[in-house]
Amino acid sequence: MSDNQHYFDINKNTWNDKVKVHSKSDMYDLEVFKKGKSSLMSYETKALADVSGKSLLHLQCHFGQDTLSWSRAGAKCTGVDLSDEGIKLAKSLNSELQLDAEFVCCNVLDTSKHVTDMFDVVFTSYGVIGWLPDLKPWGQMIAERLKPGGAFYMVEFHPIVWMFDYLDNKPVMKYGYMQDEVIYEEYEGTYADTNSKMISKEYGWNHGLSEVVNALALAGLHIEYLNEYDESPYDVLPDLIKTKSGMYATKDKLYPLIFEIKAKKI
């Protein structure tokens, strides 16, 4: 991990800045969330259904809205994130809303060094694995934190989405589907507030579906399903069109925008 520490440090600084912007953004709509609106989307609520009474570990939780939404649904939650500003806000929201979630600031790959409990559910979603250089230790950590019989669920943007450069608002295919080299982008604003003056400096890595599946399988998890969808719950890419279902899709639907995986620890 030490070889990548510089990348992680830059990303942490950017995410600390993003917390300040995102917490005031319409997309995260913090005031409505505080009044009781869940931040969870239909993919994850359908996949995990009733979490009441279950222990749930949320990886890369940002400032904790989804973690706290699962907490409201009856789960005993722990959220992990790289950003200390994100964890600080998550803890504040947890206290304000009188919930019982716990939050830990660490690199997600180091989770097992900081969190020793085992969980019924491990969850992660939307824009998470691209911050990790190698998914094998990620898969191993997930298996370590799951109880026998426990479920891992992730919903994430499809790897095809990350083959494009979106910085000039017109998607241009630029990056390899299975590219090993780190990708650096620097731009003004953020997906939740394109008008923000903050400068996002980001290092990321592309991971094909086979890499995701194999990282989980290699760790001993049983893959229950892998689904791909051409509709996203988030309007975060250029020129997406709102569908009848309330999701967002590309005009021609030539490629998937989202995938989900559910796996079980036997």
Automatic annotation (TrEMBL):
Annotated Pfam families: Methyltransf_11 (PF08241)
Methyltransferase type domain span: 58-153
Record keyword Iron present: no
Source superkingdom: Bacteria
Keyword field contains Nuclease: no
CDD domains referenced in this protein's UniProt entry, alphabetically: AdoMet_MTases
Molecular function GO terms recorded: methyltransferase activity
Gene Ontology process terms (BP): methylation
InterPro entries: Methyltransf_11 (IPR013216), SAM-dependent_MTases_sf (IPR029063)
Key words of the record: Methyltransferase, Transferase
Protein name: Class I SAM-dependent methyltransferase
Species annotation: Corallibacter vietnamensis
